[in-house]
Amino acid sequence: MVDTTTIILILVGFLIVWNGVLTYLFMRTKKQNELFFDDDSKNLRDLVTRAITDSKGIHTRAAKIEKSIDQISSIIRNSYQRFAMVRYNPFSDTGGDQSFSLALLDLNNNGVVITSIHGREINRIYAKQVENGKSRHNLSAEEEEAIKGAINEKK
Question: Which of 42, 78, 119, 144 is 20 to 30 A (C-alpha) from 103?
């Protein structure tokens, strides 16, 4: 037969091992909780409340960013992004290609074509409005070429 002291020693040994297992599990859980909870939130309710508040702040900032992107996109769409220049000599008695037509267009092919006619005695500059790649003013061949060049510029 097994003596009572031996049974008590076995039970105490088992309890010591069981205590070690429980201590290990507790320490592991505590370490996980320390990662999960910081100093500001002591319980799950505080953590969830803070997460909801942070989420609302993120959504507010995201809405502001989206609005800014829309405004910037509108500005970009309406800014001159397509350019083409044609240099030429309109007079046979002058040297060099001193004259030019410059087309400045946005993404909708709206903008302006600027022409500078250079002569010996005078320099004239003309600006003509362009809407949808066309002008209601008479265009020279060089101005039309500049507009077509700007429209066909790589997008």
Answer: 119
